[in-house]
Design brief:
180 residues; mainly alpha; two-stranded parallel sheet
């Protein structure tokens, strides 16, 4: 019943033949449930550089419970470590059911990764798949303070992420020096 309700809502957002991409960061916690409730669901795991991953989450305003970690760079480092462990777990539990997509490769030379994605999804290749689009939906009821909305490049250049905090964030994300 829950799967049918989810699919009905998805069809309202993206009527067939359109596809819905649910890109919320905490979806990784639901992969087991998703695989059981929606066994035909395709799971694409977008893999990014740890710092880029953290900054992308940090600059986005989620405005809902469960995303408190997204407002603190130290909490983001801990989240990233847990995210990596949990994704390794899901890959072990559901071998072949999750496609890792290298976001940098997709940006650099999109055709090969896009073909792999379409093949994984059981879809045919069409050249318009390479057309640019805005993949980021608006989320959250209201915008955060303006300084949190600075684009990724401005966030790094602004000094908000100093070289020391970047290396500290990367070390913490990698689990170095943390025995928790």
């Amino acid at each position: 019943a829950l799967a049918a309700e989810y699919l009905a809502g998805a069809r309202r957002l993206a009527p067939p033949p359109l596809r819905l991409l649910d890109t919320m960061p905490l979806n990784l916690m639901q992969i087991g449930f998703i695989r059981l409730a929606l066994p035909n669901a395709v799971i694409l795991h977008c893999v990014r550089d740890p710092l880029e991953h953290a900054v992308a989450i940090y600059q986005k305003y989620f405005g809902r419970p469960g995303y408190e970690f997204s407002t603190d760079l130290g909490d983001l480092a801990a989240y990233y470590r847990l995210y990596r462990r949990l994704m390794a777990h899901w890959h072990a539990v559901f071998p072949g059911a999750i496609l890792d997509v290298d976001v940098a490769a997709l940006r650099r030379a999109p055709e090969a990764p896009m073909r792999a994605i379409l093949d994984f999804c059981g879809l045919d290749w069409h050249p318009p798949c390479l057309a640019p689009f805005d993949p980021e939906p608006e989320i959250g009821p209201s915008p955060p303070p303006a300084d949190r909305l600075a684009p990724y490049r401005d966030l790094l250049q602004s000094g908000l992420l100093s070289r020391d905090s970047q290396s500290g964030l990367l070390s913490r994300a990698a689990g170095e020096g943390d025995h928790a």
